[in-house]
Hints:
Elements: H1 10-16, H2 28-42, E1 48-54, E2 68-74, H3 80-89, E3 93-98, E4 104-112, E5 115-127, H4 132-142, H5 144-161, H6 165-186
Parallel strand pairs: 2-5
Antiparallel strand pairs: 1-2, 3-4, 4-5
Helix pairs in contact: 4-5, 4-6, 5-6
Amino acid sequence: MGKELSEMTLEELWELFPIILKEHNIDYKNWYEIEQQRLLNCIDKNHIIRINHIGSSAVEGLVAKPIVDILLEVDNEINIEQLTDTLLHNGWILMSSQKNPCMKMVFNKGYTKEGFAEKVYHLHVRYYDNWNELYFRDYLIAHKEAASEYGKLKLRLIKKYEHDRDAYTDAKSDFILKYTKKAKEECVDKYNPPKTV
């Protein structure tokens, strides 16, 4: 019996779960829809404001890690501990959690001590807000040349950072911020929560 994931060092985890890039899989959309429905079935819908498929797997034709990223936005009234328990009981593993400067939790599904399962998910849980990931996704969908440039950047970076997810993510950040800014200029306040009086 190998070590449990919780017993592994970060280096061991990166070795077991290297960054893999694959051509776009048309089934990613179905994976997302199935998991979206499961989330709607297990979480109190009154507290869910938005659920979105984000990340490269949401952009048709873009090379991507074979992972479906889901952004779950909830209201401020939700009981976070209860939500966490619900997700843990439905097969999710809590990978990271922060309260400041804003609440962000990341849950994973599809990671095993033998490596990746057939379907892998990252669930990003946050309060409802004007999140960059939504703008960046929409920009890549609308601008194929930017998506192509992003795909080439990722293929260059994987050669250097295959076993270092943090460095890989950091190396993409300037590109992501550049095009997120452009997206926000094109669609001002598209994802802003409505102002309350």
